[in-house]
Design goal:
Chain lengths: 120, 419
Amino acid sequence: MNSTQIICIVCPMGCHLEVAHDSASGTYSVSGNKCSRGKEYGINELSNPTRVVTSTVVIEGAHLKRLPVKTNRPIAKGKMFECMKEIDKVRVIAPVKMGQIILKDIAGTGADLIATRSMG
Amino acid sequence: MYDIIVIGGGPAGLAAAIEAKKNGIDSILVIERDRELGGILQQCIHNGFGLHVFKEELTGPEYAEKFINELKELGIEYKLDSMVLNITEDKKVDFINSIDGYVSVKTKAIILAMGCRERTRGAIGIAGARPAGVFTAGAAQRFLNMEGYMVGKTVVILGSGDIGLIMARRLTLEGAKVKVVLERMPHPGGLTRNIVQCLDDYNIPLRLAHTVTSIKGKDRVEGVTIVAIDKSGSIIPGSEEYMECDTLILSVGLIPENELTENAGIAIDPATKGAYVNEAMETSQEGVFACGNVVHVHDLVDYVTEESRLAGRSAARYINDELRASAKAVRTKQGNGIGYIVPQFIRTENLLGGVNLFMRVRSVYSNSKLVVKADGRIIKEIKRSHMIPSEMERVQLSKEVLAAADIKELAIEVMEVEQ
């Protein structure tokens, strides 16, 4: 049984989790969490860590030069820089509505890049 | 003549104005100095906002837009690009903009929601040259996220406050090399989740008990001198180390922006650097309320919203003559291990339900409890497995508990729990 200590980042509580991995059965058990989301986070963080990527893209015809964007769901941690490369190439023209899809299936992650504010 | 003038259109001002309107006040004006509403949320493009208020994880601009839409739907009046210069004791607000010129307007109540300001290089007294490339974290964030300027290529960040940590990640994602984050104190200044998500994820080292003593460079920053700090807060001789970089980012604290408050003669608590407030978020001046980071620096916008709704509701009650100014006040007092408590005064008679006391501990505590004492008698104990100064603590007290005894002083202190 391997166990890893991590800090839960689902909410600001920052619970100190201990995630134990039973390699024989392939199952994980979590302790130290104060809610069920903490358990889910602990297991995901060891088996398949994911993050929501937030950044900006170039926008034309708006009062600002950058439009804030995010992936509409968490993507594999290892794919973050690949996403940033695609985000870098995007140019949009105002007006844009909050939630509007800016880029579909970014970097083959299955997640869409969406605008996080309206502009123009 | 307005019923309420709200100074500041960030999260605090928006929530306060909306809540006042929902409580039956129609004549409200929000005055914002920037070109749009939303305040600093507009540059905080990262996610993690709204978990308490909306039960979902939003970015700063999304959180702001929800409130801006609601404000507009409710038909609340607001002025942009407008700077408030002065507020007077008889509740006159003077402001200036390029369309109306100099305007002086009367109001029945004022809500102060000006937010806070970053501490700068001058505030922490770093010696050396004055080249380009030294930014506060918030200024760098605005340049990068709104104006579209990259601020540097190799970066040292001084201070582990939340904005500094967020900028470490942001700059890394945009291709900069963040060499190190330095923190003068022996514990991090930001939320734990930001240490994990912004530094650990990218293998950015965090060096606690270290600071910058001097900056080298003529036109642009060339490097900084780093030193280690001992337990008493002094520089350890011989620990100097030179590190090359082209940018130094400072995340060394926030100060409530209270020029207007002070000029109006409103009393400021040296512990929070914001106005003293009572259970209604009312300052020492009757009918002048305050909420958000202008009162005390919060770590979560959700708590700002909650506090500001209280201020908006209270201002409505004040206008409807439902707040008793003469009611007896209990003084809250920070005991051992507590840095400050907000509110500083509680007029039990005016409470509708209970009261939330917000506070920060002075250092890191594990297996401890927060002990609430009414005139020396313990009335409540709350166990906490882990407390750190960067994460605000909250204690809820019911009206019944407070009304039960004739309390003069309510003290809260940290005590170790015996194992």
